[in-house]
Design a protein that fits this description.
By secondary structure, the protein is mostly beta strands. It has strands spanning about 20-30, 35, 40-45, 60-65, 70-75. The protein has a five-stranded mixed β-barrel. The N and C termini lie far apart (about 70 Å). The relative contact order is 0.26.
């Protein structure tokens, strides 16, 4: 008699926060995204107020990268 082995539980990858600095080159309030110099687009957490920022502002972002989608949980002025 053979006994079936249950499938292994999926391994969850640890997501660590990363940081970046740069000047804002574009803000898309409808999509809640900012583009920094160099062209990278960051989705901004809905709890953050984009009206406090404008194009040209230097900022520091704390973000995670999930399958190429960068989502910022924190955005601060870095003047």
């Amino acid at each position: 008699m053979s006994v079936a082995t249950p499938p292994a539980a999926p391994v969850k990858a640890a997501i660590s926060a990363m940081h970046t600095n740069g000047a804002i080159t574009a803000i898309d309030k409808a999509k809640h995204c900012v583009t920094l110099e160099g062209g990278k687009v960051y989705h901004i957490d809905a709890k953050l107020d984009l009206t406090k920022f404008k194009t040209g502002d230097k900022v520091k972002l704390t973000y995670t990268d999930t399958a190429g989608v960068m989502t910022a949980s924190e955005m601060k002025s870095n003047a």
